[in-house]
Amino acid sequence: MNTIDFLEFEQMKKNVAPFKVGDTVKVQVKIVEGDKQRIQAYQGVVISRQNGGIRESFTVRKISNGIGVERIFPLHSPILETVEIVTRGHVRRAKLYYLRKLRGKAARIREKKYVPIAK
To answer: In the chain, where does DSSP find H-type helix?
Structure first.
């Protein structure tokens, strides 16, 4: 591991939720307004994840008042408070850009069935 990789590894967040493309997530974002800070929730479907390491980012799409809104978040950014997984989605693509053209029920994503392992 060279020096740059070591410095990047130190700055990466350790407690990142293991979400994938197709999952519905709730992202808690720090908003700074003047000298005040607040946390704003942004909930939607993860339609893509890019890059890796400290440069990793993901795109979340939600429908707000009938209009599709997409927001790109750097995964290891200090403005991200938490990323919570609301539901797991079952998709067979790495990028879900086709959801941009779909409306209503056609834009739904199948929910992944979770079967706990019996011990």
So the answer is: 3-11
pTM: 0.84
Under a CB-based contact definition with an 8 Å cutoff, are residues 78 and 28 in contact? no
Phi/psi class of residue 51: alpha, beta or left (left: φ > 0; alpha: ψ in -120 to 50)? left
- The domains of the chain are located at 3-99
Per-residue pLDDT tens listing for the chain (119 residues): 688 888 888 888 888 888 999 999 999 999 999 999 999 999 999 999 998 888 999 999 999 998 999 999 999 998 999 999 999 999 999 999 998 998 888 888 888 876 666 66
- In DSSP terms, 73 is beta-bridged to 58
Closest residue by Cα to residue 74 from 51, 47, 93, 94: 51
Q: Which CATH class is domain 3-99?
A: mainly beta
Q: Three-class SS of residue 97? A: helix
